[in-house]
Amino acid sequence: MSPSGSERRPRPAVRDRARPPTDRPLSPGSTLLVDLDGVVADQLPVLCDYLREAYGFDGGPADVDEWSYEVPGADTHIGTVITELMDERPEWFFGGMDPVPGAPDALAALQEEYRVEIATHRLPETHDVSRAWLDEHDVPYDAFHEEVPANKGALPGEALVDDYHGNVANAVDAGKVGVLMRQPYSDPSVCGDAHIVESWDDVTELLL
Question: Is the pLDDT score of 63 beyond 80?
Answer without folding.
Answer: yes
